[in-house]
Amino acid sequence: MKSRVSRCPIEEVMQILSGRWPTLLIYYLKQGTKRFSDLRRDNPTISHKMLALELRKLEDAGIVTRTEFDGYPLRVEYELTPAGERLVPLIDALGDWWEATSDAGVPSIA
Amino acid sequence: MKSRVSRCPIEEVMQILSGRWPTLLIYYLKQGTKRFSDLRRDNPTISHKMLALELRKLEDAGIVTRTEFDGYPLRVEYELTPAGERLVPLIDALGDWWEATSDAGVPSIA
DNA sequence: TCGTGGTTACAAAAAGGTGCGTAATTTACT
DNA sequence: AGTAAATTACGCACCTTTTTGTAACCACGA
């Protein structure tokens, strides 16, 4: 999804949150500051390329901060911004909604 | 995104809502019952293949109902389920969040 | 030589677009 | 009256575009 079709804010958010990783990364980052390698350990199936790309996307969107500590082994920390923290409950609400609807069986009949 | 990496409900919702179309279709369907061709007119850049696929996905997820009226030119109507209507405010909240954070300028400095 | 946090190039996989076919009936034209 | 064409909501096959994975490389030190 490289370009937008409307100027709607909803489409813009979905452009950022779409895909497997963004919400998962936010989920792990709400536990606190994480380093690149921490996030790779948290979900081992992401490739380092994808992790780098997704983190950049979240950074550009103002959801995470990237802090580089220059030193010997080179250390970078990722953390949710205040805006990112405000996003967390909204994502959780989606998860809750899904749990509720799938618990209710087939909603098209009920 | 064909398979899941965890059993997390958030990942499951994102599997359904990811991409350009799902939220847009829900947006138009909250205006009321729509037919296939209505939805194509609402957003002209979707192909009929994509529209059919996305509608099936939303149907399987219990977000929309598909009602087939068999007749001469064949008529099918799509409508939000109660669960789908409960989802609408959550999506709107994401849009509002995005508007608020992007209005605030660059959040990484502010 | 390994670990850190990447970038780049190439390849594989997935997503998406295009156009054709379909069924049944109305309408349009001759 | 007979024929052709249009409508509706797709499914299917083929092909292009986009996304993602893989692997290699980088610098810097312990």
Automatic annotation (TrEMBL), chains A, B:
Q: Which domain of life is it from?
A: Bacteria
Q: Which InterPro entries match?
A: HTH_HxlR, WH-like_DNA-bd_sf, WH_DNA-bd_sf
Q: Which GO terms describe its molecular function?
A: DNA binding
- Which keywords are on file for this protein? DNA-binding, Transcription, Transcription regulation
Q: Does the keyword Cytoplasm apply?
A: no
Key word Transcription regulation present in the record? yes
Q: Where's the HTH hxlR-type domain?
A: 8-106
Task: Tell me any Pfam family this protein matches.
Answer: HxlR
**What protein name is recorded for this chain?**
HTH-type transcriptional regulator YybR
Q: What organism does the UniProt record list as the source?
A: Bradyrhizobium ivorense
